[in-house]
Amino acid sequence: MTSRVAEDVAARAAALYAEALIWDDHSGFDPQPHAELDNLDLWRAAGVDYLSIDAGYDVMDWRTSLCSVAAYRSWLKARPDRFVMIDRPTDVWRAKREGKLAVTFDLEGMNVLDGDVDMVEVFYDLGVRQMLFAYNRNNLAGGGCHDEDVGLTDFGRSVVKAMNRVGMVVDCSHTAYRTTMEAMELSTDPVIFSHSNAWSLCRHGRNIKDDQIKACAATGGVVGITGIGLFLGNSIASGTFVDHIAYMADLVGPAHVGIALDYAFEVGGIDDLLTAHPDYWPVSEYPGGSVGFVPPSQLPEITATMLTRGFSEVEVRGILGENFLRLASQVWR
Questions:
Q1: Chain centre distance of CA 237
Q2: What is the rounded distance in angstroms from the CA atom of residue 307 to the CA atom of residue 259?
Q3: Among 20, 113, 166, 289, which lies 20 to 30 A Cα-Cα from 235?
Q4: In this structure, are residues 169 and 200 in contact, taking their beta carbons and an 8 Å threshold?
């Protein structure tokens, strides 16, 4: 690419990125009530307009997750000049105009329900807009991606129906193959893989296979490409990230692809956490040490890379945010 062409692409990308709705469908950090939420400014400074904040996962006691939601709500409400909790997808555009980061919450695994399907509506009312089945290990709802693939349980089926009823998005990331396929067949609303990459490009147990991607698209769903280097192929280059976008777009169409970076900053004690819970993070899949991640500040470069690869501006806008916005508009009540 000549320098003149590269400059033109960079200028187009910068203008497009400034105008587009930027939706990051999952942020990951150890979701404790005392989490350092000032780090959310990393997304805001990068021009991200919406972020789903991880408020709990199966490794934690369910009561800690509930306390995290309460603490996050209080913290966000005390900073209305920078952040806004939203109820409707259209509120994201208002937040963008006001220079604020719009947020909702997500939950990684159904242990947080403590076996009570009625808790789905409680968490929805507290701002949780998506929940996945199991975080790597099996639970009452179904199978995790690093465990025996038991399929969707009766409790899991009742939760899917409750999520469809209240408007919470059914999320299949971190979940075992059979459980995901059964959940996508059962759900009457579009289903997502909030943060999962293509197994065909990187054969890690956290990534998803072609028929899972196709089944998700068939529901009207979206797969969010995650920026964790271990799931990209031990690379955090923008080109590698776009490889996964392009693979899924070629497979099911760009309207079913989105962004879910997961990390934006180094989280202390991660290696210790992994070592303490080898059942959740098998050493064979998580050897330890830094694996790197794609930060939000890299999104403008990713935008330029998509344009260079031949994606249209309409397709890029969809991938950056409008695809997930469309899905939320269909599902949230």
A1: 19
A2: 16
A3: 20
A4: no
Two tokens at 229?
Answer: 């280097």
Q: Give me 292's structure tokens.
A: 């790197």
Query: What whole-number distance in Å separates Cα of residue 209 and Cα of residue 252?
Result: 12
The one-letter amino acid code at 278 reads P
Distance, in Å, from the CA atom of 107 to the CA atom of 85, rounded to the nearest integer, reads: 16
Q: Helices then strands (H, E): number in the chain?
A: 14, 9
pLDDT in tens, 58-110: 999 999 999 999 999 999 999 999 999 999 999 999 999 999 999 999 999 99
pLDDT of 202 reads: 98
- Taking CB atoms within 8 Å and a gap of at least 24, the contacts of 210-214 are 210/251, 211/181, 212/172, 212/177, 212/180, 212/181, 213/248, 213/251, 213/252, 213/256, 214/251, 214/252
Residues in CB range of 132: below 8 A, 6 or more apart: 106, 107, 108, 109, 110, 171, 172, 173, 174, 175, 194
* Closest to 101 measured CA to CA, from 229, 318, 264: 264
- Spans of all domains in the chain: 3-331
Pick the CATH number of 3-331 from 3.30.750.24, 3.30.470.10, 3.20.20.140, 3.40.50.170: 3.20.20.140
Cα(23)–Cα(28) distance, integer angstroms: 15
- Could you tell me the end-to-end alpha-carbon distance of the chain, in angstroms, rounded to an integer? 47
Does residue 303 come out as left (phi exceeding 0), alpha (psi in the -120 to 50 range) or beta?
A: alpha
Distances (CA, A) of 98 to 73, 81, 116, 240, 322: 20, 9, 39, 33, 18
Task: Yes or no: say if 225 and 258 are a contact pair by the CB < 8 Å rule.
Answer: yes
